[in-house]
Structures are given as structure tokens and as C-alpha cells.
């Protein structure tokens, strides 16, 4: 292991806050990002242990665009509506040959860019003709050559509160509120019912190459991840006194 990793990143981040009126407050942010590296951390191994050629490529954090929108809107009937939208472009993923090319017991060797379309074993992909058995005359794909799909998260929050009962004595800190409060809340997760994919399979010999065999988010209670699974509604009632 060596500590000579290289990481270069450029970012542009814009934040916007708007108080359109006493009942409408909106926030938003946009981030443009470019990140290049020759390693993704201490657990990263070069595809070819004898050469670092092709290791410099998009970092795992090279997500080009991130958009976040949120806010709070108090409607005519004092129903509080709070939307939250997060959109990101796709992250990179490494494309591998699916075999231990260099005899290192690691299966992270990358395929070659085929120069002979008639060579046995060559695989046609959306990234071109790739050879899982690269030869010396073939250029090897650089690290994290693939690009996965983006993600879309849209959650919303609705709350209506009622106050009633006798008012307690004023304390000199302003007008006293009614003693009791009853609130109804609805949480909507993944309102668009959009499926967000988990890690993309980069093994070109796999029938699932370029696809994900799991959803984003990594589970959650009962295997449910609010950001990645089907549309979900939750209702809550709270009484305070």
C-alpha cells in the first residue's frame, strides 16, 4: 500500500433563499461538480498491479449535478405544506472483465477496447466492443468508465393544527395561546413513485451488466427505504396539553 493517491475536484455551489411572503418560504441549491482521481480510498486496488495506466479517471464522487428544492407554504386554511425535492445526475461505476486477469485473486481487471470485432469472446456493450481477455495491442478502459442513472427524491409534508380550550394566564411574554392543540400530519415519501437504482453491476460477462440488482438506500425498517421504494403515505395525529 502507498499514500500517493491523487484527487482533483472542482465545484460550483449556488444557494437561494426566498421569503416570497409571510406565508411562503422557499430554499434551493445547485451544485456542479467534477472530481477526478486515481483511487477511491484505502480499499482501492489498481486493475493492473504492475501499472497505474488508466487509473486516473472519474472519482466515485464525480456526480456532475445536484439540485435540492424545499420550503414551507402556509395555505389559506392554515395547512402547512412542506415539499422537498432532491435530484442528482448519475455517479460513475467501474467496468470490469469479471475474471482474475493478473493472478492477484482480485476480480477488478478491466476489459480492453477491442480492435478486432471478430475476436472470440468480444462483447458488444453500450460503451463499445469490449474484450474480457485484453491483449497487449488493446487499450484498457480507464477506471470508473461507466455512468449510472440519476436519482429523483420527492417527499412532501402536510400539517393542520387546531388549538382550543381555555387560555392560561398571560406571563408578560405576549398573548397566551389556548391550552390544547390537536394536529394532523400526512407524510408522503417518493411521491412520484420513482425507482432509484442501487450500485450498478460493472462485470461485462454478467447478464445484469449495466443494471442494478438492488434499490438505492440500503433497506431501512423492514427492508423499506423511503427514498427508493414505492410511494408511501404515513398519517400521524398528535394531541398536546
Number of strands: 13
In angstroms, what separates the terminal alpha carbons?
Answer: 62 Å
CA-based gyration radius: 26 Å
Rounded average pLDDT:
88
Low-confidence sequence ranges: 218-228
Coarse morphology: elongated
Structural class: mainly beta
Spell the H/E element sequence: EEEEEEEEEEEEE
> How much helicity do the residues have?
under 10%
The description of the largest β-sheet is: 8 strands, antiparallel
Describe the protein's architecture and organization.
With 241 residues, the protein is mainly β. It has no helices and 13 strands. It has strands at 7-21, 24-37, 57-58, 65-74, 79-88, 92-93, 112-113, 123-125, 128-131, 146-147, 151-164, 180-189, 232-240. Strands 1, 2, 3, 4, 5, 11, 12 and 13 form an eight-stranded antiparallel beta sheet that branches. A hairpin with a 4-residue loop joins strand 4 (65-74) and strand 5 (79-88). The radius of gyration is 26 Å and the shape is elongated.
Q: How would you summarize this macromolecular structure in one to three sentences?
A:
The chain is an all-beta fold.
Amino acid at each position: 500500500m502507498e499514500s500517493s493517491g491523487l484527487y482533483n475536484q472542482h465545484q460550483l455551489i449556488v444557494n437561494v433563499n426566498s421569503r416570497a411572503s409571510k406565508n411562503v418560504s422557499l430554499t434551493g441549491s445547485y451544485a456542479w461538480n467534477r472530481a477526478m482521481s486515481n483511487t477511491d480510498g484505502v480499499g482501492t486496488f489498481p486493475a493492473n498491479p504492475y501499472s497505474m495506466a488508466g487509473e486516473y479517471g472519474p472519482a466515485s464522487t464525480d456526480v456532475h449535478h445536484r439540485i435540492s428544492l424545499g420550503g414551507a407554504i402556509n395555505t389559506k386554511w392554515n395547512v402547512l405544506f412542506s415539499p422537498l425535492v432532491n435530484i442528482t445526475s448519475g455517479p460513475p461505476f467501474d467496468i470490469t472483465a469479471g475474471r482474475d486477469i493478473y493472478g492477484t485473486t482480485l476480480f477488478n481487471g478491466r476489459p480492453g477496447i477491442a480492435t478486432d470485432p471478430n475476436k472470440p469472446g468480444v462483447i458488444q456493450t453500450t460503451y463499445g466492443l469490449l474484450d474480457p481477455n485484453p491483449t497487449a495491442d488493446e487499450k484498457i478502459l480507464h477506471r470508473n468508465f461507466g455512468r449510472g442513472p440519476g436519482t429523483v427524491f420527492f417527499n412532501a409534508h402536510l400539517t393542520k393544527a387546531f388549538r382550543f380550550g381555555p387560555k392560561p394566564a398571560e406571563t408578560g411574554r405576549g398573548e397566551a395561546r389556548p391550552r390544547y392543540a390537536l394536529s394532523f400530519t400526512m407524510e408522503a415519501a417518493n411521491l412520484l413513485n420513482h425507482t432509484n437504482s442501487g450500485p450498478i453491476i460493472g462485470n461485462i460477462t454478467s447478464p445484469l451488466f449495466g443494471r442494478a440488482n438492488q434499490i438505492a438506500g440500503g433497506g431501512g425498517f423492514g427492508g423499506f427505504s423511503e427514498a427508493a421504494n414505492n410511494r408511501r403515505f404515513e398519517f400521524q395525529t398528535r394531541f398536546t396539553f
